[in-house]
Amino acid sequence: MPEIVNLEHDVLVIGAGGAGLRAAIAAAAQGVKVGLITKSLLGKAHTVMAEGGMAAAMANVDDRDSWKVHFADTMRGGQYLNNWRMAELHAKESPDRVRELEAWGALFDRTKDGGILQRNFGGHRYPRLAHVGDRTGLEMIRTLQDHGIHQGIDVYMEHTVISLLKDGDRVSGALCYDRQKGEFKLFHTKAIVMATGGIGRAFKITSNSWEYTGDGQALAYNAGAELMDMEFVQFHPTGMVWPPSVKGILVTEGVRGEGGVLRNKDGKRFMFDDIPDNYKNQTADTPEEGWRYVTGDKSARRPPELLTRDHVARCIQREVREGRGSPHGGVFLDIAWIKEKIANASEHIKKKLPSMYHQFIQLADIDITKVPMEVGPTTHYIMGGVRVDGDTQMTNVPGLFAAGEVAAGLHGANRLGGNSLSDLVVFGKRAGDYAAEYAKKNSVPKIDQAEVQNGIKQALLPLDRGTSGESPYAIQAKLQDTMQDLVGIVRQEAEMAKALVEVAELRKRAANAGVGGQRDYNPGWHTSIDLANLLTVSEAIAKSALDRKESRGGHFRDDYPEKSAEGGTYNSIIKKGPNGQMVLERRPLTPLPEELKQIIEDQKK
Amino acid sequence: MSKMSFKVWRGDKGQGEFKEYTTEITEGMVVLDAMHQIQAENAHDLALRWNCKAGKCGSCSAEINGMPKLMCMTQIKSLPTDKPVTVEPMRAFPHMRDLVSDVSWNFEVKKKIKGFSPKKADRPDGTWTMAQSDIDRPQEFRKCIECFLCQDVCHVLRDHHKHDEFIGPRFFVYTAALEMNPIDEADRLADLKNKDGLGYCNITKCCTKVCPEHITITDNAIIPLKERVVDEYYDPLKMVANFLFKRNKK
Question: Using the beta-carbon criterion (under 8 Å), do B110 and A146 form an inter-chain contact?
């Protein structure tokens, strides 16, 4: 058997994006020994891709804002399937988390009086997003990284976790390999914080990088944790569509926040055609009012381009399907038009949206200060994930915590833009705090060595099969086609049933995947290991989506295009059954306390 | 559609050679797409780093036709077609495998630089009043995506291997962002002079040229740092005063 390196920590954080870094910092502050594992180099996680900003009701720009408005916005955006306790804590605590970042060196854009500036975003009633141009995620991850490296955290870069280990009910460790050296490592730990992000690579068109293969969801599921709301995948309305090699790369919602408008091939602002009832009294009647809103007129209501992402994505899909799309199968997103309204528009756009400007110049030969962009929906985020307790972020497996995108609850059926960065730090901190507390209270668990040896054996199978096995890249590509075509933005019964059959078929093929080469730095080997996780989350998504016979938030069904009353009463729960099969259950929502119910009612006015 | 050839560095820990691969090119393809295609078609174990594929994370640094670049932001049509495109790992760092270099030195260097240390907050909510115009410059430096291309091209590191005495352009930019942060109070000038090797930089501006974030590294970060060090340690009046009054504390 290959050699194995043994390491001991009190708290092991898996994933080093915003949530993982914040959890590690919180746990280290409690004086416990913390390990932080990341699949990439430090500071490269998907958090760097977040552009628009971080939602926090600080009321720096509009003093009508408060945690109550933010809470109500989040619940409305999530179509009331949210874990209300998480929505409440998030709205109350995110301002402190923003201020804390400033205290650690973040430099947010400023208001005229020198405070932290906030911008408009989809689904947020008031300007609420603290930001740095269109690179807020980079600012957040760099701030956490540069602060974190001085906190005595042991960082393991380019490591991948293969399986979680348990001692009875509770977690006891993680089996891992060092991607650089191909060496196996066994982490003994009292508590684990899962902060591995999303599942974007299950789909063909995505804004996510290779890392987002649903590792955390699948590892937790295999360890007995429940998954929740997996049918709710967010298709961001604006990804690049041309040229083909950049298809799916994100175009920030900040473009619309700064006044960008969506038009079809006839030049029509089609978003005015379809405004959902529950947003009617918050949405502008005319383009004129929309413009006044984005330029800070407090008496104006927001333009329909800033409706929630699920809705905007579907409207774009409709325009394309009905033949009113742009030449390359998207619609037009126009920010250049603001030159009609303001002097020096070109400079303004470059200052406010610098990375969008460069992205389009360099990858598509398009100057966004002069001509419109072509955009279409791209797989961006999963609202569902590992079910956690709202206060502590602990899963149903003792000692296993989850925070950030990998966890479910805060966003319900649809996430508002800007609520992700704040999610990372609010719940990253909570997970780190409670994991450290758990580690202090509990003894060192035992590791089952037979389980470890079996894990290593399984992991080496693709290399044992070598080039006689099937290419893992081919299987992954087929899975991405299946999910994109059959469980994508518009869904229906027969297609999803077919997807489940295909996923089962691909699972058999994955069991015969093989790669040549060695153990150190072999992406083919890594891909074949990640494949198992992708298949698990794909099955969970398809299964949950097939069962939810209605349309709500990120889940839209052609055969059930309306919301159902019953659909608003439960969360879909996925867990591993006694014989290893995936089991689905509809679990009734926990009723809202009276005072929170009242806040939602008050904010409907 | 057309075919194009790439000479890709294959090998292990410094040992290696160029291997030629041919793959189909479609409109708008970048070098990273070509590497992925080659990986999926006939080099499953080709080692390379990448993440965002949008020029925001700085993972896919390489030397393309000898120039330090991000593979994800280099359009193939921007390259000459008359000969194969060469793709190599960054050469200023130890080689690991294929296109992957060992960049861990950079992470060690950063740890040794004095971290952010703010003065007392001046707003009731625990934040600081800062004018936008006062943070424009450090914000420029904070655009850095840590691709380390500036380190790769710098001759002090690449040719003279001064990794033990010189922190490189990336970390002068990092230090400058801290030094020019209006609320930071720490003093890093002595370290810049004595430990970080600021004097080794002879402002050839190669780093500025390769920066994919267009940070004016030399003019806006390194030269002002050099000026601050000179003001502090080499101002003739200060030197005389220090000599006469024996205030030679620093």
Answer: yes
Nearest by CB to residue B53, choosing from A249, A355, A364, is A249
Q: List, for residues B158-182, the tens digit of each pLDDT value.
A: 999 999 999 999 999 999 999 999 9
Question: Which residues, 6 or more positions from A12, have their beta carbon under 8 angstroms from its beta carbon?
Answer: A34, A35, A36, A37, A173, A174, A187, A189, A191, A192, A193
Asked if residue A243 lies in contact with residue A563, where contact means CB atoms within 8 angstroms, the answer is no
Q: Reading across the β-sheet that carries A385-386, which strands appear in turn?
A: A385-386, A227-228, A570-576, A582-588
- As a whole number of angstroms, the distance between CA B106 and CA B62 comes to 16
d(CA A580, CA A584): 13
Q: Please state the rounded mean pLDDT for residues A432-444.
A: 98
Residue A455: pLDDT band by 50, 70, 90 thresholds? very high
Whole-model pTM: value is 0.95
Distance between CA A279 and CA A276 in Å, rounded? 6
CB A527 within 8 A of CB A160: no
Q: Note whether B54 contacts A49, CB cutoff 8 Å.
A: yes
Which residues of chain B have a CB within 8 Å of the CB of A354? 143
pLDDT at B250 over 50: no
Q: What is the ipTM of this complex?
A: 0.95
Taking the Cβ of residue A66 and every Cβ of chain B, the question of whether any pair is shorter than 8 Å is answered with no
Q: A142 an active-site residue? A: no
Exposure string over A26-47, b if 16+ CB within 10 A, otherwise e: bbbebebbbbbbbbbbbbbbbb
Q: Decide: A162 and A39 in contact? Cβ < 8 Å.
A: no
Identify the CA nearest to B218 among candidates B230, B207, B227, B228: B207
Asked if B140 has any chain A CB less than 8 Å from its own CB, the reply is no
Reported as a pLDDT band with limits 50, 70 and 90, residue B247 is low
B2 neighbors B25 (Cβ within 8 angstroms): yes
DSSP alpha helix (H) spans, chain B = 31-41, 104-112, 132-141, 149-153, 155-158, 169-179, 189-194, 206-210, 223-233, 236-245
Strand partners, A394: A401
**Is B115 close to A46, i.e. CB distance below 8 A?**
no
- Residue that has been written with the tokens 């993680």 in this structure: A174
Q: Is the dihedral of CA A102, A105, A111, A112 positive or negative?
A: positive
The pLDDT tens digits for B184-220 are 999 999 999 999 999 999 999 999 999 999 999 999 9
Beta-carbon contacts of A74 under 8 Å, excluding residues fewer than 6 positions away, are: A82, A87, A90, A91, A410, A411, A412, A416, A419
